[in-house]
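Appendix C reproduces, verbatim, an entry submitted by the partner laboratory led by Prof. M.T., so that reviewers can inspect both the input and the predicted structure.
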Amino acid sequence: MSTSSEPGATAAGSTDRSTDGTTVTGRAFPPREDGRIVGVGIDVAQISRLEGLLERTPALGERLFAPEERELSLASRAARVAAKEAVGKALGHPGDFSWQDVTVQRTAVRRPYLVLRGATLAAAEELGVTHLHLSLSHDGDIATAIVVAERADPSPTANIEVPR
């Protein structure tokens, strides 16, 4: 085992010293620096707020949701709103796409995944995105989504800030 005071410098199963001097056993997971991760997006939606908006403006449901999403529970629809927003943030284009461009599907074992179309798909392809990781959750009155956009190959311009 190695001992290090540098965060991220430890090997799997090694020992490290925390900033308060205590010994910590574990494995560091430093951020990637090779440009593989294009972006991360997170969003939350208040379920009761969505319910009020949909009651006051029924046509909003047709604008926000694809036909297969409209019959889901209110909490699931709120999670999808959060997912659509999180996709925009992960791609660096929040608000620059149609709500219909992003849908959430589920595998046979109910794991959620994203389907992109239109301008959102074009933006993802322009950035070289080959994988989108999605996590959805809802509890109480809040629905949450996190999206990680990833390239298959590291970017030759890793660590260079891209203007958006």
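The mean pLDDT is 85. Additional entries are available on request from the coordinating office.
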